[in-house]
Each structure stands twice: as C-alpha cells, then as structure tokens.
Design brief:
Layout (H helix, E strand, L loop, with lengths): L1 E4 L2 E4 L2 H12 L2 H4 L10 H10 L6 H10 L7 H6 L16 H7 L2 H18 L1 H5 L2 H17 L5 H9 L5 E7 L7 E6 L5 E8 L3 H4 L2 H23 L1 H4 L10 H6 L5 H21 L2 H13 L5 H13 L7 H18 L1
Parallel strand pairs: 2-3, 3-5
Antiparallel strand pairs: 1-2, 4-5
Helix pairs in contact: 4-7, 12-15, 15-16, 15-17
Length: 338
Amino acid sequence: MNEKLGKLNITIDPRMELLAIVQYFSKYADRFYGLVTRERDIYTDRVMDYFQQYKNHAIINLFDDMSLNGFNFDAPPASILYLSNPPLLKEKFPFDEYVIRRAGGREKLENFIDLLRDFSEKTQFISFFEDNNNQIFYKQVISSVMQKINNLDYISILEDYYGYGKGSYNIILVPLFSNGNYGHQIKDNEGQEHIYAILNASHVEDRITKELLINLLWHEFSHSYINPITEENWKQVSQYNKMFDPIKETMDKLAYSTWETCVNEHIVRAITVRLICLHIDSDEGKTLLEDEVKNGFIYIKELCKLLEHYENHRNIYPTFKEFYREIIKFFSEIYMHD
C-alpha cells in the first residue's frame, strides 16, 4: 500500500506490519511502555482474531529475549528495512554494523529473521495483509496523513536546508505502534541513500495533528542527514563528552543514553525548530524550542542561534557538512568555558 506526494512515498509496509504483530503479541509493550498500542480498535481486533493461535510461536519468545538485550526502540524496525517483502524476507542490502550490534551479533539477527520468515509462512501473513478490509483500513490511514501535509513541499525545504538530496524519502506508517517514531537510512547496492521516517499511526485521524506530523517528518528525516555527519566527525565530537554529564540522567529517561545520541538529538531538534520558524510559524517554532528546553535539551537555544548564522551565510556553507565544523567549535567553547 503506497502513495506518492511529490518526492515523498507514504506507505503501510508489509515488513513493518509483520514485525509490529510480533511485538504486539510479545511482552514488549509492557516492558517498553507505549511503543506498541494496548488499545482495542477494529484493526487490533482483526490482528488478535487472526494471529492469536500463533502467540506461542518461537519468534515471540526470541523477540522478548532480544528486546531485553538491546534489540529495541529503533533497532527492530531498522533491521526490517534491509529485507525483501514477506514471505521471503531475503537480505536485499547488507546489514550495517549498527543493526548487527543492536541485535547482539549477526548470528542472532539471522536467527531472528529465520523465525520471522517461519512465522510469516505459517500464519500466511500475506493473506492477512492483503485482506480487503485491511487494505481499506490502510488506505484510510495513508489518506489521513496525506490530507494533513499536502500543501507544502517538505522535501525540497529539507534538501535546500542541508544543501543536497537523498535517493528517496519514505514515510512508513505503523498502526500498531503507539508512541515510537524512528529514522533510518539504507544505502542500496548502487550507493544511493534512501531515508525512512517510521511513524506510529495509532488513531492517526484524531490524535496526529498536521503540526505534529511535520515535526516528526523533518525530525526523523534529519537523523539520516545528521547522524552520518556526526559519525564522520566523531573523533573530535567525542572529546567533549563531559558535556553529557549534567543531562545524563534526563537523557537516559528519554532513551538517549550516550553522548553521540545526545549530540544528534540536540542538532536534529534545533534544525526542526528552525525549519518550523522559517516555513510554518515563528511562534510555533518558539513554543517548540521552549518545550525542548523543558525536556532537558540544555544546549538547544544556543544551537538555534548558531543555525541562524548558517542560514544567513550559505555562500560560505553550501551544505551542512561544511557547517558542522562550527558546531564542533560550539562544543569546544562550551567545554572550555565550563
């Protein structure tokens, strides 16, 4: 199920639905509150009725074990993106080291995929996914999102801000996800980079506003720009890891438990604020900024001021990659001051 809006692909992805169903029948929602819905609706009732008899399949227990040992939050959805559609679930592109590490090693990841494939085949998952009632539901979810974001070229704005584009931009909506939203990037065999915003779509019609969708879209897509740049500059950025100490406890609660993830979140959130200020509404951007400060992102105000310098000097910084040295300098100045 796929629709296009300019350069943006909006989908309900069978790979992600298969994963979400495994998570739904596991203990994941209890252990990681809010990531998978526990509310009942027509769709969850269909899921329950169809898959209930397979709730003791080995993939459920394996996922419970792996999710307690680091294979959680963004890692499971990210791993699915490297595969072909069910029931085959073949490795289309080589898994990156991040996904392998989060799974606990290649052997565990391959075992997970093997059992997921077996679950897909035994349950005849594709019959469920292609059921007419479910297809109508998926179409309604996609339509609701398209109606809320169809009056602005969000991708061109993003490409202009960073100074370059990607191979494709994809929103994957997951009706069984409740709060979790994730960004990931896949490099195909030709070297093209494809970026994904994996967004929860539980009660999308009445819970997800246009403003929230735009925030999520720019936020999650920005991770696929920012995270690789931080990784390229990690030797320098890591020198200032003591800046993490004052906010470590707060960041841990938000699942940003390392200095690297903290850096990326600060930069991505600052850029999202600036994009909203520039292209949506300045007051809305300021409100978001204040919310981010309240949430513990203590460096974000100064980062936003720094980004204004970037915006006003694009002749010096044609892409964000060139500007990143100014962010490193920013960290250095705070570090030396403290």
